[in-house]
Amino acid sequence: MINGLLEASRGCSKEEIRMDVISTNLANSNVIGYKKDRVSFQKMLKQAEDGSGSQPAVTLRADLEQGDVKQTGNELDVAIFGKGFFKVNTENGVRYTRKGNFTLDTAGNLITQGGDQVLGEGGPIKIIGNNITIDADGNITTNMGQMGKIAIVDFEESGSIIKEGKSYFANPQELPEDSKLTETKIHQGYVELSNVNTAEEMVNMIQALRAFESYQKSMRVIDELNEKAINQVGRLR
Q1: Percent of the chain with pLDDT over 70
Q2: DSSP-derived pairing of the beta strands 85-90 and 78-81
Q3: CA end-to-end distance (rounded Å), the chain
Protein backbone atom coordinates (compact mmCIF):
# COMPACT_ATOMS: atom_id res chain seq x y z
CA MET A 1 0.00 0.00 0.00
CA ILE A 2 2.92 2.30 0.65
CA ASN A 3 3.99 1.81 -2.96
CA GLY A 4 0.46 2.66 -4.04
CA LEU A 5 0.58 5.92 -2.11
CA LEU A 6 3.94 6.79 -3.62
CA GLU A 7 2.69 6.11 -7.15
CA ALA A 8 -0.45 8.17 -6.57
CA SER A 9 1.64 10.99 -5.10
CA ARG A 10 3.92 10.96 -8.14
CA GLY A 11 0.83 11.02 -10.33
CA CYS A 12 -0.50 14.12 -8.56
CA SER A 13 2.87 15.86 -8.95
CA LYS A 14 2.98 14.92 -12.62
CA GLU A 15 -0.45 16.39 -13.31
CA GLU A 16 0.38 19.55 -11.35
CA ILE A 17 3.40 20.10 -13.59
CA ARG A 18 1.30 19.41 -16.68
CA MET A 19 -1.27 21.97 -15.51
CA ASP A 20 1.47 24.59 -15.00
CA VAL A 21 2.76 24.03 -18.55
CA ILE A 22 -0.73 24.20 -20.05
CA SER A 23 -1.49 27.39 -18.09
CA THR A 24 1.72 29.01 -19.38
CA ASN A 25 0.87 28.03 -22.95
CA LEU A 26 -2.62 29.50 -22.66
CA ALA A 27 -1.32 32.71 -21.06
CA ASN A 28 1.00 33.22 -24.06
CA SER A 29 -1.42 32.13 -26.78
CA ASN A 30 -1.68 35.70 -28.12
CA VAL A 31 2.07 36.45 -28.03
CA ILE A 32 3.61 36.85 -31.48
CA GLY A 33 6.15 34.14 -32.25
CA TYR A 34 5.57 32.22 -29.02
CA LYS A 35 6.33 28.49 -29.12
CA LYS A 36 4.37 26.28 -26.77
CA ASP A 37 6.03 23.91 -24.34
CA ARG A 38 5.58 20.17 -24.27
CA VAL A 39 6.32 18.11 -21.17
CA SER A 40 7.90 14.65 -21.08
CA PHE A 41 7.90 12.37 -18.06
CA GLN A 42 10.26 9.73 -19.43
CA LYS A 43 12.82 10.38 -16.69
CA MET A 44 10.09 10.04 -14.10
CA LEU A 45 9.03 6.68 -15.51
CA LYS A 46 12.63 5.45 -15.41
CA GLN A 47 12.94 6.58 -11.79
CA ALA A 48 9.80 4.65 -10.94
CA GLU A 49 11.22 1.53 -12.56
CA ASP A 50 14.54 1.91 -10.74
CA GLY A 51 12.89 2.89 -7.46
CA SER A 52 14.99 6.06 -7.36
CA GLY A 53 13.88 9.62 -6.84
CA SER A 54 10.85 10.91 -4.99
CA GLN A 55 10.09 13.87 -7.25
CA PRO A 56 9.10 13.66 -10.91
CA ALA A 57 12.01 14.47 -13.24
CA VAL A 58 10.50 16.13 -16.28
CA THR A 59 11.79 17.47 -19.55
CA LEU A 60 10.29 20.58 -21.11
CA ARG A 61 10.77 21.07 -24.82
CA ALA A 62 9.57 23.88 -27.01
CA ASP A 63 7.36 22.79 -29.88
CA LEU A 64 8.89 24.56 -32.89
CA GLU A 65 6.00 23.84 -35.21
CA GLN A 66 5.11 26.87 -37.35
CA GLY A 67 2.28 29.02 -36.05
CA ASP A 68 -0.40 30.65 -38.16
CA VAL A 69 0.50 33.95 -39.83
CA LYS A 70 -1.42 37.19 -39.77
CA GLN A 71 -1.26 39.98 -42.31
CA THR A 72 -0.62 43.37 -40.73
CA GLY A 73 0.49 45.55 -43.65
CA ASN A 74 3.26 46.99 -41.48
CA GLU A 75 6.40 47.29 -43.60
CA LEU A 76 8.63 46.30 -40.67
CA ASP A 77 6.63 43.19 -39.74
CA VAL A 78 8.18 40.02 -41.14
CA ALA A 79 7.24 36.37 -40.71
CA ILE A 80 9.44 33.35 -41.35
CA PHE A 81 7.90 30.67 -43.54
CA GLY A 82 9.85 27.50 -42.84
CA LYS A 83 12.66 26.71 -40.45
CA GLY A 84 14.93 29.22 -38.77
CA PHE A 85 15.12 32.13 -36.37
CA PHE A 86 15.89 35.82 -36.44
CA LYS A 87 19.11 36.77 -34.63
CA VAL A 88 18.85 39.47 -31.98
CA ASN A 89 21.62 41.17 -30.03
CA THR A 90 20.62 41.50 -26.36
CA GLU A 91 22.41 42.58 -23.19
CA ASN A 92 22.91 38.87 -22.48
CA GLY A 93 24.35 38.10 -25.89
CA VAL A 94 22.87 36.84 -29.13
CA ARG A 95 19.39 35.35 -28.88
CA TYR A 96 17.07 33.78 -31.43
CA THR A 97 13.39 34.42 -32.03
CA ARG A 98 10.47 33.99 -34.43
CA LYS A 99 8.91 37.23 -33.22
CA GLY A 100 9.18 39.52 -36.22
CA ASN A 101 7.19 42.65 -35.34
CA PHE A 102 10.19 44.96 -35.66
CA THR A 103 10.52 48.73 -35.54
CA LEU A 104 13.22 51.42 -35.87
CA ASP A 105 14.98 53.39 -33.15
CA THR A 106 15.76 57.09 -33.47
CA ALA A 107 19.04 56.29 -35.23
CA GLY A 108 17.33 54.10 -37.81
CA ASN A 109 18.49 50.77 -36.39
CA LEU A 110 16.17 47.82 -36.89
CA ILE A 111 15.13 46.69 -33.42
CA THR A 112 12.60 44.52 -31.61
CA GLN A 113 9.68 46.02 -29.73
CA GLY A 114 11.82 45.60 -26.60
CA GLY A 115 14.70 47.65 -28.06
CA ASP A 116 17.14 44.85 -28.95
CA GLN A 117 19.01 45.13 -32.24
CA VAL A 118 17.99 42.79 -35.06
CA LEU A 119 21.10 41.35 -36.68
CA GLY A 120 21.79 41.12 -40.37
CA GLU A 121 24.39 39.00 -42.09
CA GLY A 122 26.89 41.81 -41.53
CA GLY A 123 25.79 42.82 -38.04
CA PRO A 124 23.18 45.39 -36.92
CA ILE A 125 20.95 46.79 -39.67
CA LYS A 126 20.53 50.53 -40.15
CA ILE A 127 17.76 51.71 -42.43
CA ILE A 128 17.56 55.14 -44.01
CA GLY A 129 15.11 56.40 -46.59
CA ASN A 130 11.51 55.55 -47.38
CA ASN A 131 9.53 52.83 -49.14
CA ILE A 132 11.08 49.97 -47.17
CA THR A 133 10.94 46.66 -49.03
CA ILE A 134 11.98 43.29 -47.60
CA ASP A 135 12.15 40.47 -50.11
CA ALA A 136 11.71 36.72 -49.52
CA ASP A 137 15.43 36.29 -48.81
CA GLY A 138 15.51 39.09 -46.22
CA ASN A 139 17.16 41.77 -48.37
CA ILE A 140 16.11 45.25 -47.27
CA THR A 141 15.95 48.12 -49.73
CA THR A 142 14.61 51.67 -49.64
CA ASN A 143 14.59 54.58 -52.04
CA MET A 144 18.19 55.09 -50.87
CA GLY A 145 19.30 51.63 -51.99
CA GLN A 146 20.33 48.36 -50.29
CA MET A 147 20.24 48.51 -46.49
CA GLY A 148 21.30 45.00 -45.53
CA LYS A 149 19.95 41.49 -45.23
CA ILE A 150 18.13 40.03 -42.24
CA ALA A 151 19.98 37.00 -40.90
CA ILE A 152 17.97 33.79 -40.62
CA VAL A 153 19.69 30.80 -38.99
CA ASP A 154 18.78 27.36 -37.73
CA PHE A 155 20.49 24.52 -35.88
CA GLU A 156 20.89 20.85 -36.72
CA GLU A 157 19.77 20.04 -33.18
CA SER A 158 17.20 22.79 -32.71
CA GLY A 159 15.73 20.89 -29.75
CA SER A 160 18.90 21.71 -27.79
CA ILE A 161 18.41 25.47 -27.77
CA ILE A 162 16.95 26.82 -24.55
CA LYS A 163 13.77 28.83 -24.30
CA GLU A 164 13.89 32.16 -22.46
CA GLY A 165 11.46 35.00 -21.89
CA LYS A 166 10.36 37.50 -24.58
CA SER A 167 9.94 34.59 -27.04
CA TYR A 168 13.73 34.30 -27.16
CA PHE A 169 15.90 31.19 -27.38
CA ALA A 170 19.48 30.88 -26.15
CA ASN A 171 22.24 28.65 -27.50
CA PRO A 172 24.22 27.73 -24.36
CA GLN A 173 25.88 24.74 -26.03
CA GLU A 174 27.16 27.03 -28.80
CA LEU A 175 25.72 24.80 -31.49
CA PRO A 176 26.87 25.80 -34.98
CA GLU A 177 24.45 28.01 -36.89
CA ASP A 178 23.14 26.98 -40.27
CA SER A 179 22.38 29.97 -42.51
CA LYS A 180 21.85 28.01 -45.75
CA LEU A 181 18.11 27.65 -45.50
CA THR A 182 17.14 27.51 -49.14
CA GLU A 183 13.51 26.59 -48.49
CA THR A 184 12.92 29.26 -45.83
CA LYS A 185 11.31 32.50 -46.98
CA ILE A 186 10.42 35.80 -45.35
CA HIS A 187 7.10 37.54 -45.94
CA GLN A 188 6.92 41.27 -45.35
CA GLY A 189 3.78 42.70 -43.77
CA TYR A 190 3.02 39.53 -41.81
CA VAL A 191 3.71 38.22 -38.31
CA GLU A 192 3.77 34.65 -37.08
CA LEU A 193 1.32 34.04 -34.27
CA SER A 194 1.88 31.61 -31.41
CA ASN A 195 1.49 27.92 -32.21
CA VAL A 196 -0.75 27.38 -29.18
CA ASN A 197 -4.07 25.74 -30.07
CA THR A 198 -6.30 27.06 -27.29
CA ALA A 199 -9.01 24.44 -27.84
CA GLU A 200 -6.45 21.63 -27.64
CA GLU A 201 -4.86 23.11 -24.52
CA MET A 202 -8.26 23.43 -22.82
CA VAL A 203 -8.95 19.74 -23.53
CA ASN A 204 -5.52 18.87 -22.12
CA MET A 205 -6.26 20.94 -19.02
CA ILE A 206 -9.53 19.10 -18.40
CA GLN A 207 -7.78 15.75 -18.83
CA ALA A 208 -5.01 16.76 -16.43
CA LEU A 209 -7.53 17.95 -13.85
CA ARG A 210 -9.49 14.70 -14.04
CA ALA A 211 -6.31 12.64 -13.75
CA PHE A 212 -5.24 14.70 -10.71
CA GLU A 213 -8.62 14.10 -9.06
CA SER A 214 -8.34 10.36 -9.80
CA TYR A 215 -4.92 10.18 -8.16
CA GLN A 216 -6.25 12.09 -5.15
CA LYS A 217 -9.16 9.66 -4.83
CA SER A 218 -6.74 6.73 -5.02
CA MET A 219 -4.69 8.24 -2.19
CA ARG A 220 -7.80 8.65 -0.03
CA VAL A 221 -8.88 5.05 -0.67
CA ILE A 222 -5.42 3.67 0.12
CA ASP A 223 -5.25 5.82 3.25
CA GLU A 224 -8.62 4.50 4.43
CA LEU A 225 -7.51 0.92 3.80
CA ASN A 226 -4.32 1.52 5.74
CA GLU A 227 -6.29 2.95 8.65
CA LYS A 228 -8.66 -0.03 8.69
CA ALA A 229 -5.78 -2.49 8.54
CA ILE A 230 -4.00 -0.78 11.44
CA ASN A 231 -7.16 -0.73 13.59
CA GLN A 232 -8.02 -4.34 12.84
CA VAL A 233 -4.51 -5.53 13.61
CA GLY A 234 -4.68 -3.63 16.88
CA ARG A 235 -7.93 -5.32 17.89
CA LEU A 236 -6.60 -8.80 17.01
CA ARG A 237 -3.70 -8.29 19.35
Answers
A1: 86
A2: unpaired
A3: 21
